[in-house]
């Protein structure tokens, strides 16, 4: 029985030099395998091929970067809307919104590496960011060093 659809190309046969086989003795190519379940460990790929790899320092840098991105997303979410010039204010709010959504997708893609450490720092960054910028804990009627950002004014 022919399972090929008209116009569809078949993938090239595996290299004869491949010595890896799967559980059914089918040859496997030397592609990197991605985790499909959560795991602990520093040996992973996050956002880019080969990064951070097996280097501990680069893994720690990735954790810090994801934490800062999550914190920044919460900061961008804290902008208040005040009445001002409609066009200018709308344009600035649109740019801030696009930046916030884009950064959110980067954090989501990093968490999709299924690394538990990244999941923890992403949640921690969002939590701390909300505590600092989304609650009124540091506001007591007057500004206590945390500006109340007004977008577009």
Give a written overview of the molecule.
The chain has three helices and four strands. The relative contact order is 0.16. Helix 1 runs parallel beside helix 3. Residues 15-19 have low confidence and may be disordered. By secondary structure, the protein is mainly alpha-helical. It is elongated. The strands form two sheets. A two-stranded antiparallel sheet has the order 1-2.
Entry summary:
With 153 residues, the chain is mainly α.
Largest pleated sheet = 2 strands, antiparallel
Molecular shape = elongated
What's the overall average pLDDT, rounded?
78
Please report the total strand number as a whole number: 4
Helix percentage range: 40-55%
Give the low-pLDDT segments: 15-19
Strand order of the largest sheet: 1-2
Oligomer: single chain
What structural category characterises the helix and strand content? mainly alpha
Distance between the termini: 68 Å
What string, H for helix and E for strand, traces the elements in order?
A: EEHEHHE
- Given the structure, what is the number of helices? 3
Strand percentage: 5-15%
Rg, nearest Å? 23 Å
Secondary-structure blueprint:
Elements: E1 44-45, E2 52-53, H1 56-77, E3 80-81, H2 86-111, H3 116-134, E4 150-151
Parallel strand pairs: 3-4
Antiparallel strand pairs: 1-2
Task: Record keyword descriptors for this entry.
two-stranded antiparallel ribbon; mainly alpha; 153 residues; elongated
